[in-house]
User: What shape does this take?
Amino acid sequence: MFEIFEYDFMQRAFVAGIIIAVLASVSGTFIVLRRYSMISETLAHSALVGVAVGLVAGFNPLWMAVVFAVISAWLIEYLRSAFTLYSDAVLAILLSGSLAIAVIIVSLGGAFNNSLFSYLFGSILSVSSEDVVTIAIFGTLSLGALLLFSKEFYFIAYDEEVAKTSGIKVNLLNFLLVSVVAVIIALSIRVVGSLLIGALMIIPTIAALQFRVGFFKTVIISLIFALLSVVAGMTLSFYFSLPSGATIVLCVLFIFIISLIANRR
Amino acid sequence: MKFSVPIFDIKNLSFIVKGQTILSNISLEIFRSEYIAIIGPNGGGKTTLIRMLLGLEKPTGGEVKIYGKKLSNFKEWHKIGYVPQRASHVDASFPATVLDIVKMGRTSQRAIFSTFSELDKQFVHDAMVKMDIVDLKDKMIGTLSGGQRQRVMIARALASKPEILILDEPNTGVDVASQKNFYALLRELNQQEGITIVFITHDIGVIADDIARLFTINQKAIICNNPKQTLSCQEMSELYGIDAHLLHVHKHEH
Assistant: This one.
């Protein structure tokens, strides 16, 4: 029954997946409450530019994904605060732009191969020991930042202007939140894939919100749903030879539908 | 009693956007323990004035000082409690209990690594007792009535132990009975706690007897130091831009 754990690659995938489930669900709660769900999709596509640069130029794609996602996050916050642009329009522009740049880079560099495909849709086979170490280190730092400023992020999500007038450094914390989210997304694309990470970040929180409980309980429920989806998704992916990212997302969607039905008014 | 340094000292404040004058050359002072109402028609610049006082908008001319300091140098924002216009229109699905919301009032005064201290708990409890919402503390904010939500928002502002409470059209979406209790509460906060109250409304009918000074704003400000004297027809007409006539209503005691 536990033959799944006899393989080194599955052990690595499970460790990475569990860390990502924790990071994605906790950060996703703040993103959803800020009505900023689409930022995960945009940053995932920006991370893809980093992957493309990494693959073509011979750098570590994961590191390059982190760098490009963070730059994109800062650009989004800058455009949002400095110009009178709609937030969702800024996200849509950067999403399309990033994807176009990534495709051009890999096309020019002749790197449109299986490697890129694994970053698009996630592949548990591709998680290396080095990736696990990178995910663990950056993941711990990201989670630390989220927990350290969780009360401020929560207040800002509830009412940004009142938070500002109470003396909270809202602009600085907005930059910190999007930077942390960018790092988490970049770390996640190995396992879940850049096209699907947004779902793991957003759907567990949306499902948890159906239970209409306070903030702390919502975070815990979201965390449990994300962990269940990742563990179930990777197990199914192993036994049925399915792409890990897509299987995880289908599991989280299933949980969402159950939550929706169970909490019907 | 007026202190030498006003809480807010506003000089020649103007706000012009794309050639349109929202506020023109406003000067006024707000002192400790005052109870002030700012009235004027919708679009007259009341909310813009408040947003500039709180640093949410930058004036195109003039200057605002808080406790004698320029806005950019002011750090003690916990002394100012702000209840915005949309306070009672909360997102029904936001995952927050009444206690979660009131606790937000302590956020800016807590150190990064600190837990919620006994003092924080005391301030939150005191604010909930004052607003009579202790029984609601575990209720989800989205399930409350407009009047209850309004009390929660004020409790959140009070949890930071403010010296001044700024309320922007706080009665929007609140029923008449709750409004009456609300004015009694503001009076109590002002008279018993010494909290300065700045109350903004477009509805001239709500101006209570106990308001010390009245600022009427429609781009320009008229300061009325004795609001018990009814505004003249001419002042009313200037303020609201329509012909105004005074109607005297005799009040009978039953």
